[in-house]
Amino acid sequence: MASFQDKWAAPQKQSFMDKLGDTLKPKGSLKPRVEMAVKRLQAQIGKLDGMCQKLQERDQKIFQKIVAAQQAHDTYSSKVLSNELVEVRKVNKIMSNAKMGLERIELRLTTFHDLGDTVTTLMPTIGLMNGLKSSLVKFMPGADQEIGRMTEMLGGLMTETFSSSGSSFGVEESTNAESDSILAEAAAVAESQSGEQFPSVPSTGLEQFNVPTSESKFM
To answer: For residue 215, is it within any domain?
Structure first.
């Protein structure tokens, strides 16, 4: 028979609700790692913002050249420049969408940092990053690797947070839909801003020429 002293020293078992609370509660080391993720995001957002500004400047220069070519009745040059401008705006749209997406991830992580809402924040955020990574690889060498590292870090936080539960509590089912919704929202904002910033490309008399799209350096 166990002695009274042994019974007194034996640790008390946690109830299911206590274990659940401990599982969802952010660990002590969570805060600095989330702050690090936010700093990395801000660095990528800054790079994207700079690239978008350069693309906007290039857009304006090409557009002015198109106007000058139209005034000189140089239809061929107008068509070549118009094709180049289309490509510039296409890249700018991709960059703007990515920038908006990262800004929304930053907002979510900042909110998570304040509220400690681990599950509903981190899972859609990881999905968002995976979606943005593939769109940036062509235009920002190394960005996909940096985003990949951030995704792994956030995934590690999720693993730590859920390690003792063995369950996602039904959150996984809505993760993709929520990520897609956030990306769609970011794309809509970027589209609206692009429409306000850029004038339409002159097209009078250009359709008769079939000129290959010129390759240009966007950076």
So the answer is: no
